[in-house]
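To whoever is on call:

I kicked off a structure prediction for a single chain this morning and the downstream step that reads the tokens threw a length-mismatch warning. I double-checked the sequence; it's 267 residues and nothing unusual in it as far as I can see. Pasting both halves so you can look.
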Amino acid sequence: MSNNIDHQSKLPKGKIMAGVILLIVGGILLIQQFNFFFFPSWLFSWPMWLIVWGLYVGAKHNFRKPIWFILIILGVGFLLDREIPGFDISGIMWPILIIAFGLWIILRRNYGDKYLGDTDQAKPNATFAEVDYTVKPNDDVPPINPNPGVPPYSPDDHLDATAIFGGVNKSIFSKNFRGGDITNIFGGTELDFTQADINGRVVIDITQVFGGTKIIVPANWHVVSDLAAVFAGVDDKRIKNPQVIKSDKILMIKGVSIFAGIEIRSY
């Protein structure tokens, strides 16, 4: 007798929360145009947008990364500097950011991702198999290979790059790359996939503000952009070579880019 275990995909709670935040902000902006209610001027100031953006980024990633906290701290600091006479943000902002980032590093090192809200969820493109639980301990158990021809999951198959006021340069060597996340805040990320390989379609989710991302891919990869860009764009600088045989390898770029750009190249 064999038991089938059905694994239902969980709802993307982070992205749902991010959508709710955008709906609330859009609703407030719409109500303001009709003068139904009075809203203070600071509610629509640019520091407030930093706070909203921090909530959006945090909700999207289930508040696992420190970027949302940094954006909110920046927004609150600039808002206080704007609204309170005599308040000087320049003297306290950097010490607060350094302390907050240090605490995050300590908590992450001592308590791990579980303490910070990162649970052991299924990895991207995870596969599940039918298992026979009636096999006796002395029986020969053949290895389970639910997806023949595809190597098992490795941490190198998933990308998580974060650049804050700095840069990240990384070469990907995984032969079974499965996607990942890139976050740039006043920083940039450069990824080299020329020695990597993918199976089918993989997704890279990019969230960046005042930053940039450069992606170098093999010539036979398809690159599809499904990115929401505000004062930003995707610049595909690949040179088409008719001798290159196209394949079913698709790299899809998703996410949000504000005052930032994405450059795609191949050699």
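Update from on-call: the warning came from a stale cache, not from the record. Cleared it. Sanity check on the structure: The mean pLDDT is 74.
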